[in-house]
């Protein structure tokens, strides 16, 4: 299989998610190693916004974004300790009430949410299909039992998907992942 990268800049790469809940589900990763997006500079986060817009330009579908940011010392998240934001096209609305039903803090932007979570070891930041942003911190994660891959569990439940929520349960090669790569022409944006 050729490279899974479908969009790249000097700062970020996008590739289809292993465990495609919806065709075209993508991950955005910074090229520079950091464990969480909240550890990126304001400049890097600004470049993320334009990169994400470019990734979903012309897709014609609502989409949600989320990150379960965790430092490896927290032992939270999905066990992958390189920052990554999930960008998932959804067939109908998915709102914050469903994504983060308890203890969420509203924010004006993803940048504001990441800034608010700089000093916590673990958080979840989400943007719903209406464009609203919220986050929860490690205290809320523990109090309400928001476990690993919480947002993938929400997507499977909310949309009654006949697929496993755990990306590790998908067989290789994954047909939807191969289709997502084939549907996108790799492009370089600088």
From TrEMBL:
Pfam family, one: CwfJ_C_1
Name the UniProt record assigns to this protein: HIT domain-containing protein
Gene3D superfamilies the record matches: HIT-like (3.30.428.10)
An example Gene Ontology molecular-function term: catalytic activity
Native species: Crateriforma conspicua
Locus of motif Histidine triad motif: 82-86
Domain HIT: 1-101
Lineage top rank: taxon: Bacteria
């Amino acid at each position: 299989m050729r490279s899974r990268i479908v969009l790249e800049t000097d700062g970020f790469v996008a590739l289809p998610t292993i465990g495609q809940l919806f065709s075209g589900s993508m991950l955005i990763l910074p090229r520079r190693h950091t464990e969480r997006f909240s550890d990126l500079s304001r400049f890097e986060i600004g470049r993320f916004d334009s990169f994400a817009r470019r990734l979903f330009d012309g897709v014609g579908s609502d989409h949600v974004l989320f990150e379960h940011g965790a430092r490896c010392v927290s032992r939270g998240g999905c066990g992958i300790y390189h920052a990554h934001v999930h960008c998932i096209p959804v067939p109908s609305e998915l709102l914050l009430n469903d994504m983060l039903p308890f203890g969420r803090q509203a924010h004006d932007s993803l940048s504001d949410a990441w800034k608010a979570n700089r000093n916590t070891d673990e958080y979840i930041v989400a943007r719903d299909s209406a464009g609203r942003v919220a986050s929860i911190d490690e205290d809320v994660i523990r109090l309400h039992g928001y476990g690993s891959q919480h947002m993938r569990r929400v997507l499977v439940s909310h949309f009654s998907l006949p697929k496993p929520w755990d990306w590790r349960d998908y067989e290789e090669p994954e047909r939807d992942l191969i289709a997502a790569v084939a549907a996108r022409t790799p492009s370089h944006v600088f």
